[in-house]
Specification:
Elements (H helix, E strand, L loop, with lengths): L1 H29 L2 H27 L13 H31 L6 H29 L2 H30 L4 H28 L6 H12 L7 E10 L2 E10 L5 H18 L3 E9 L6 H5 L2 H5 L9
Parallel strand pairs: 2-3
Antiparallel strand pairs: 1-2
Helix pairs in contact: 1-2, 1-4, 2-3, 2-5, 2-6, 3-5, 3-6, 4-5, 5-6, 7-8
């Protein structure tokens, strides 16, 4: 699975590198700020793809003495850096577009720009689909962020493509910087979404409600052996999940029996949440009227039934 994530990130790097070269050439030839904006956007996508490549490799390293909980948060760090880079790109695009509007810059040779944008739309659509597929299968935050970048790139490239076609048909050159500003606003929205998701796990947000519900449901399914539970705390680091809780056991249960209950519970939890690392704290039940405690009571177990006397 680690090899799959690294290979997918490498495909994204190669694709972005090729598109950057094409867009820079087309932007210089045509003088279209929208194409240059897309070139900058793709350049940041390349940086993001490289960060994702090294992020997933770092995150997949096994736990060690210095990082006993693993390296999963490298994926969140990767996503946060990518979001910041996207914000910077959007600000630059808006600045350049406003300059073009003020100075009424001309565009030319739009056929080349239209062709490059079409290639960009097709290539990024194919690569982003693969990124999302692998990200879902491996629960990789870094690959998901990279896929989101390329999905945004598809939309912006399509917008630039339509804008260049309209400029060629109508001669309204102001459409070029106006579309560039529109592209920048879309980029800002994508950056915000990535930053919110990536940064949230850095500060140890809990697991989603549906996953916490899964944990509670599995524990409740073992209530015939448990007196209750409390103190559930969860957090996420990349694709890794961590949870800890207190299990209330019948007070007369032996250590060996309590251990078997915990093992069975952990197996059930990991079958539903494979990347979950769970820590269980066992404590005795304090309810004097607990029926489970009565069942495990040594006195009840050893108490002999009275013999029936012959009539």
């Amino acid at each position: 699975m680690s090899h799959l994530k690294s290979r997918t990130a490498a495909i994204s790097v190669a694709s972005n590198a090729a598109l950057i070269i094409l867009k820079v050439i087309a932007g210089i030839m045509t003088g279209a700020v929208s194409i240059l904006a897309e070139a900058i956007h793709s350049a940041l996508d390349l940086v993001a793809a490289i960060i994702a490549f090294f992020g997933v490799r770092a995150a997949d390293k096994p736990a060690d003495q210095e990082h006993p909980f693993g390296h999963g948060k490298w994926e969140n760090v990767s996503g946060t850096i990518e979001a910041v880079l996207i914000f910077i790109a959007a600000v630059w695009i808006i600045y350049e577009a406003v300059n073009r509007i003020l100075h009424n810059a001309a565009v030319e040779m739009l056929g080349w720009g239209i062709a490059v944008m079409l290639v960009s739309v097709v290539a990024n659509t194919l690569v982003s689909r693969r990124l999302f597929k692998v990200a879902k299968a491996t629960e990789s935050v870094a690959l998901e962020a990279d896929g989101q970048h390329l999905r945004t790139d598809v939309m912006t490239s399509a917008g630039v493509l339509i804008g260049l076609a309209l400029v060629q048909l109508t001669g309204l050159e102001i459409l070029d910087p106006v579309i560039a500003i529109f592209v920048a606003l879309i980029i800002i929205k994508a950056a915000y979404d990535i930053l919110r998701k990536s940064f949230g796990s850095i500060v140890d947000t809990g697991l989603p409600d549906e996953e916490q519900a899964v944990i509670a449901d599995i524990i409740n399914a073992h209530r015939e052996k448990l007196a209750g539970f409390h103190g559930l705390r969860t957090r996420k680091a990349g694709s890794q999940r961590f949870a800890e809780l207190h299990l209330v056991m019948p007070r007369y249960l032996s250590v060996d029996e309590a251990h078997r209950v915990c093992d069975h519970l952990e197996e059930d939890l990991k079958s539903r949440l494979p990347m979950l690392e769970i820590t269980l704290h066992v404590e005795p039940c304090e309810d004097e009227n607990c029926p489970l405690c009565a069942v495990t009571c040594p006195e009840r177990k050893t108490r002999k039934k009275p013999r029936r006397q012959a009539g």
